[in-house]
Amino acid sequence: MTTVLERVRSGREAAGERWRGAPRWVRWALLAAVIVFFYALPNREFYQYLGPIPTPGANFTQVMFTVSIYVLLAVGLNIVVGFAGLLDLGYFGFFAVGAYTVAVLTSPSSDVKTLWPWLLAVPVAIGLTMVSGVMLGTPTLRLRGDYLALVTLGFAEMIRIAAVSSEFLKGQRGFNQIPHPPGQYADGKPVFGVLDARPYYWLVLTLIILVVIGVRNLTHSRVGRAWISIREDEDAAQLMGVPTFKFKLWAFAAGAAIAGLAGALFAGKQNFVNSQNFELLNSIIILAAVIFGGSGNIVGAIVGGGLVAYMIERFRGIELFGVELYEYRFLFFGLVLVVMMIFRPEGLIPNRRRAAEFKDRRKEVTVGE
Amino acid sequence: MLLEIDDVSLLYGRIQALHGISLTVDEGEVVALIGANGAGKSTTMRAISGIRPVAAGRIRFQGEDITKLRADLRVRRGLCQAPEGRGIFPGMTVLENLDMGAYTRRDRAGIAQDLNRVLDLFPRLAERRKQHGGTLSGGEQQMLAVGRALMSRPKLLLLDEPSMGLAPMLIQQIFSIITEINEQGTTILLVEQNAQQALARAHRAYVLETGRIVKSGTGAELLHDPAVKEAYLGVA
Ligand SMILES: Nc1ncnc2c1ncn2[C@@H]1O[C@H](COP(=O)(O)OP(=O)(O)O)[C@@H](O)[C@H]1O
Ligand SMILES: [Mg+2]
Prior knowledge:
CATH superfamily of the largest domain in chain B: P-loop containing nucleotide triphosphate hydrolases
Number of strands of chain A: 2
Family (chain B): Belongs to the ABC transporter superfamily.
Number of helices of chain A: 15
Domain ABC transporter (chain B): 3-235
Order of helices and strands of chain A: HHHHHHHHHHHHHEEHH
Number of domains of chain A: 1
Structural class of chain B: alpha/beta
Distance between the termini of chain A: 32 Å
Oligomer: heterodimer
Structural class of chain A: mainly alpha
Bound molecules: adenosine-5'-diphosphate, magnesium ion
Keywords (chain B): Amino-acid transport, ATP-binding, Nucleotide-binding, Transport
Protein name (chain B): ABC transporter ATP-binding protein
GO molecular function (chain B): ATP binding; ATP hydrolysis activity; branched-chain amino acid transmembrane transporter activity
C-alpha cells in the first residue's frame, strides 16, 4: 500500500519537475491550449465529442457557469486560507453580501427602488463586501487563536438568517428582475440573455484569468512574502518587521472583495436572488475545495474549486441502486476529504513550499549530527 | 544605554510571568540572561521585541520610550530577535529566509553585503542556500535563525536559547559565532539555559527566577558565585 502510494507520489513530483524544467515556450503553449479549451468547452459542437464529461442530469453550459463561479470563489478564498493562513469558515457570507447588494440596488422588488443598472451596482457590491471584511477582520485578526474561524462562521450564519427572515431582504420570495450585464450584438439582441449561459461563463472565465494574474503578481511581491511568512510563523514574521495585522486584514479584505464580485456576477446571471442560495454548507464546500486542490497554490485552488463544483453536478441524474447519487454528494465529499487528509494532506497540487512546511523538522531534537 | 527595561511586568491572561524586572544593555556588550525552565526568559524577550504587550513598566531603546511601539516598528529601530525554538520559515529556502530578515530594509547594496557576511559566518548555510528551511537539521535551523536576525542589521540582537537541542560540538560553534558577531560590532542580549557557556562569553549577566531578577553582575562574577554555581552550573 505504502509503496504504491510512494510511487504515485514520486511520479507526481517527477511530473512537477518536468513542468518546471520544460522550456518557457512549451509551458506557454500548454497554458494557451488549456485556456482555449476552457473557452471552447460550453459549446455543444465541442463538448459533444468529450465522452462522459458533459453532465447527463443538467444543462452542461449552466453547470459550467456554476463551476466557474466556484473557481473564482476558490481563487479568492485561497488568498485568505492558502496564502495568509487564516481560517475563514464563512466565506460564502461575502458572496451573499455581493449578490444581495446587487439585488437591492437593481431589482424592482427592492424597497429602495434605485433600479440601478447591473454594472453600476458591481463596484458598490465589491466595496461593501470589502468593508464588511474589514469590519469583521479588524477586531478578530488582532487576536490569536481560532477566533476568526468562529466569527466568520457566525457572520455567514447571520447573513443567512437575515436573508431568510428580514423583510428588507425578502426571504424566500426574493428579488426578481435583477438586470443582466450590459452589451448588445449588432442586431440589437442582448449579449447576456436568459437562455444562453455561455456569455456569463466567458465573462467569469475572463475575470478569473484577470484575478489570477493579479493574485500572482501580488504573491511574487513583498505582499506575498509577508503573507507566506505570516502563514508559516506569525511570531517570526512580526519579529522580522512584518506588520502582520495589516497584511492579514488585507488578505481578508481582498478575499472578501473577490467573493463580492462572484456574488454580483451570480446575481446578474440568475436574475433572481433569494434566501435559498446561501446555505452554510457552501462555505464548507469551497473551503474543502481549496484544501483538496492544495491550498497555497493558485493552480491547486482552481483545480480544487473546479473539480468539486463539477463533481457535485456530475452526480445529478446518475442512479445507483435506485437512488440518485446526487443525494449522497456530501457523504462522498466527506470520504474523499478524509482519504485525502490521510494520504495527501498537502492537497492534490500542493506548492513546494507547502510540502516543505509539512515536512518541517523544527520540533525535532538534534542530539548528534 | 542602548536598552533600559524598568520595572516591567507581563501577564498571560491571569498568570503573571514577569514581576517588575529591570535590566540594561549598553552599546557593544554581550549581556546574558540565565534562569531555569519557565523562569520567564523568553517572556522577557517577547516584551522587548514587542510581540507581547507589557502590563506595567517602561522599555527604552536608544533613549526612546518604545513600551507601546508595535513589534514591526521596533525592528525598524534596530531591535531584532531570533525566536526560541528555531522560528525559521519552514517553507522558504535558506536564501528566502535570510531575505525575510531584511524585510524592513530597502538598501540593496547593504543587503547584499550583509548576505555575504552571514554566509561567511555560516558556511553550512551557504552550502544549503536553495534548501527549504523545514528540511534543515536542527543545528542548521538555529544558524539560520541567527543569520536571519542579522540580516536586519540590528543594533541590538536578541538571541533566545540559540544552543537549545544541539550537540556539544555545535553548541561550541554557535557560541564562538556569537562572540564573533559581537566583535564585529553588534550588541547582544543572550538568553540561555546553558549558563556555563553564556556566562563565560558575556560581559554582564542577570539571573532570572520565577519572573524576578535575583542576581546580576559581570559574567566572571556570576560564574564564580556559589549560589549560581549550585543552581545553574551543576556543581555543588
Ligand atoms: N503563551 C503563554 N501562555 C500562558 N503562559 C505562558 C505562555 N508562555 C509562557 N507562559 C508561562 O510563563 C512563564 C515563563 O515562561 P517562559 O518565558 O517561556 O520561560 P523560559 O523561557 O524562561 O523557559 C512560565 O510559567 C510559562 O508557563
Ligand atoms: Mg524560553
